[in-house]
């Protein structure tokens, strides 16, 4: 029994809602994957805030029509397609997919769409090589902490060097006074 029109409309509405929350959409050829393997892929992607949708290309085509930031995906809608819709951690999602692909060797990345631009496999790989949001925040925090430490040392150094200068002047003045007394 096929899907009813209402059922298809629900699927398209769900796809539109998920796309509106997504930053990146990856299209993969999932032909040859078992249900257990797709479940494994979904499990790996879940911590990164990514949803894996397996749906007909025609339904995804209807969902992206009229949405300028997703129209480039039309080029990728062919064959057996699964859509990885990334909401949060882009590089984490790409790395999770790459790990799955290395393990299963059954999927093929066709490309992706981000901010209205079509991404080829090399572009997606470059995005995956970027540090995660947590790593970037740690690097920024480390840089801020290093800067604050340098400022604190510099501020602390001003009175110390002033005190050493006064001490040196006092020592010099004291030695000049003792020479005058001796003469």
Automatic annotation (TrEMBL):
GO terms for biological process: translation. Coiled coil: none annotated. The keyword Ribonucleoprotein applies. Pfam families: Ribosomal_L10. Signal peptide: none annotated. GO terms for cellular component: large ribosomal subunit. GO terms for molecular function: large ribosomal subunit rRNA binding; structural constituent of ribosome. Keywords: Ribonucleoprotein, Ribosomal protein, RNA-binding, rRNA-binding. Gene3D superfamilies: 3.30.70.1730, 6.10.250.290. InterPro entries: Ribosomal_uL10, Ribosomal_uL10-like_sf, Ribosomal_uL10_bac, Ribosomal_uL10_bac_type, Ribosomal_uL10_CS_bac. CDD domains: Ribosomal_L10 (cd05797). Forms part of the ribosomal stalk, playing a central role in the interaction of the ribosome with GTP-bound translation factors. Belongs to the universal ribosomal protein uL10 family. Part of the ribosomal stalk of the 50S ribosomal subunit. The N-terminus interacts with L11 and the large rRNA to form the base of the stalk. The C-terminus forms an elongated spine to which L12 dimers bind in a sequential fashion forming a multimeric L10(L12)X complex. This is Large ribosomal subunit protein uL10. It comes from Chroococcidiopsis cubana SAG 39.79. The gene is rplJ.
